[in-house]
Automatic annotation (TrEMBL):
InterPro entries named in the record: TPR-like_helical_dom_sf (IPR011990), TPR_rpt (IPR019734)
GN (gene name): LOC113520963
Keywords: TPR repeat
One protein family per Pfam: TPR_19
Alphabetical list of Gene3D superfamilies matching this protein: Tetratricopeptide repeat domain (1.25.40.10)
Protein name: Trafficking protein particle complex subunit 12 isoform X2
Swiss-Prot/TrEMBL TPR repeat ranges: 433-466, 467-500
Organism of origin: Galleria mellonella
């Protein structure tokens, strides 16, 4: 038994993230899967949050163990290269919204029957198969399905959402100051997918959500339409994906759960092309975007029901593995036909192996939420054994290091850190950000805050705009009793790159440090609010919470 302290001693609990943090782009190589292993928190490295840290009277770094932040703060990305894009700061990975945006323009892509088949493939369950056979064999106009086999969604959220940042600015800065910030509403863009993409691109998420309501109402699935028969199309389901991704991003969990409930597990027959033979002729597969299917499977994990999410994810995994088995046997994904070429087969295997990995990453996150570290480790080890490049193996070794730190097994974490370092020698001759962060985490686990600070500082030298690293530097300084320097690190991160630095976790941390420093913090917080108005749109779920304004 390892008697050394576990990370659970140091860190308090916070929300556990969705698998989305692991999302690769659909269609990338399975080897590039893990974009961010964040093993133990909300979406993307949400860095440290000082929820209950108390200032110390001495100059030493004696901070109560129960007040220390969640380790997820320390988990940077573990993809092939450190991610230097905008930091993730919420429960949903920005990749989901990106995928939704891409899907909104899918109608403009050239027709490729093989690509369509592999993208849309899904195996219906036995009950759905019976209805689909009946739909296809019935004479035109004579098929009238029972209500029980229909998916009948509708909008629950009736009110139009206002720009949350603008409302806070009016309250705390006054109308004249808030007025300098432009407010974008749904009516300011075209009422179509192009307008929706523009709102998403510019970060006006509540306006985008309002526009999804308009577009979904136009396809007959608006307020009051729940439990009424309706026709589904790839476009209508893409709109639902966009809506759900935005609702998740701004944490509208309650209405999201109610609206998503009507779709179930997307296995009703009207979720398949075969249900509409007059419209889609011989086309097969699911109307449901894979990202929507995965988002809904993960959804219970966002509201504390990780066991339910695991059940849903394993159900998805069963279907995917059956499709991969069919592909490896030279058949189409659903097993009903023979593939025409090796290229088609290889492309399909590549896509669905990647999607299988995405689901496994989701299960890893749920396992961490349930503190089932053995299961999470088993999956990551399995992925490591299947990895086909040094970059992949190194990334997964780093992820395993951080997983076992989270579980409190420091010796095991050290083994995987050394393994990651050994593999790194075959990739680049000198340590990089990932390695310095791994070393810093090991130091934190041993209570060596000065050494951890040194390693995070080396990481910051390589990536000065890395918000996760800045947060960790600040935490180490706090532990060493250097509060003013901890504040200065976060202020510099914001001032040097406001677009990236004004992220939720960093704002919460900085405002907490302001409160530790002095009881007179209002002016500093309002300065941050002014910066948000200047540089940010409407992407932060709760501005009051971030700035700790009452």
């Amino acid at each position: 038994m390892d008697n050394k302290p576990s990370l659970s001693q140091y860190f308090g609990n916070t929300d556990v993230p969705p698998a989305s943090q692991f999302f690769d782009e659909i269609g990338t190589s399975p080897s590039d899967m893990i974009q961010s292993v964040y093993l133990g928190e909300s979406e993307g490295p949400q860095e440290l949050t000082f929820s209950s840290v108390l200032p110390t009277v001495s100059g030493s770094a004696s901070v109560p163990a129960t007040s220390l932040p969640d380790p997820s703060t320390f988990f940077d990305t573990i993809g092939p290269e450190p991610q230097i894009g905008a930091p993730k700061s919420n429960l949903v990975n920005p990749a989901i919204i990106t995928e939704a945006m891409d899907g909104l323009s899918i109608k403009n892509q050239p027709v490729d029957k093989e690509a369509d088949r592999r993208r849309d493939a899904w195996i219906p369950n036995d009950e759905a198969k019976k209805t689909l056979m009946k739909a296809q064999s019935s004479p035109k106009g004579s098929f009238f399905p029972e209500r029980e086999v229909l998916t009948m969604p509708g909008l629950v959220l009736e009110e139009e959402l206002a720009d949350a940042l603008h409302e806070v600015a009016v309250k705390y800065l006054g109308v004249s100051s808030a007025g300098s910030r432009g407010v974008v509403r749904a009516e300011h863009v075209s009422r179509d997918e192009a307008g929706l993409r523009e709102l998403l691109r510019t970060g006006y998420l509540r306006a985008a959500l309002n526009l999804t309501a308009v577009l979904i109402t136009a396809v007959g699935q608006g307020v009051g339409r729940m439990h009424r028969p309706t026709k589904h199309t790839p476009r209508s389901l893409q709109l639902w994906l966009t809506r759900f991704a935005v609702m998740l991003r701004i944490k509208l969990h309650e209405p999201l759960l109610k609206e998503a409930e009507q779709f179930g597990d997307f296995n009703k027959p009207d979720m398949f092309y075969q249900f509409y033979p007059d419209t889609y002729e011989n086309r097969t597969g699911s109307l449901v975007p894979f990202s929507l299917r995965l988002l809904i499977a993960e959804l219970p994990g966002h509201v504390g029901k990780s066991e339910e999410a695991v059940d849903r994810l394993y159900s998805m995994l069963d279907v995917i593995q059956q499709m991969l088995s069919n592909l490896r046997a030279g058949k189409t994904e659903d097993g009903t036909a023979t593939l025409s070429s090796d290229q088609d087969r290889n492309e399909s295997i590549r896509l669905w192996t990647g999607r299988e990995t995405r689901v496994l990453h989701s299960i890893v996150n749920c396992s961490i939420a349930l503190k089932d570290y053995r299961q999470a480790g088993k999956i990551l080890l399995s992925l490591q054994q299947q990895a086909t490049s040094s970059v992949q193996r190194r990334a997964l070794s780093s992820a395993l290091c951080r997983l076992w730190l989270l579980a409190g097994h420091i010796k095991a974490a050290q083994v995987f850190m050394e393994q990651a370092r050994e593999i790194r020698h075959h990739i680049c001759p000198t340590p990089d950000v990932r390695e310095y962060v791994d070393l810093g985490l090991i130091d934190i686990a041993h209570g060596r805050y000065q050494e951890a600070y040194t390693n995070f500082a080396r990481a910051a030298d390589q990536e000065p705009t890395n918000i996760m690293v800045a947060n960790n530097l600040s935490v180490c300084l706090l532990y060493m009793g250097r509060l003013k320097e901890a504040i200065a690190v976060l202020q510099k991160a914001i001032n040097s790159d406001p677009e990236r630095g004004l992220n939720e976790s960093l704002l919460i941390n900085l405002c907490t440090l302001y409160e530790l420093e002095s009881s007179k913090t209002n002016e500093k917080k309002l300065n941050l609010l002014n910066m948000l108005c200047k540089y940010k749109s409407d992407t932060i779920p709760n501005v009051l919470e971030c700035l700790k304004l009452s």
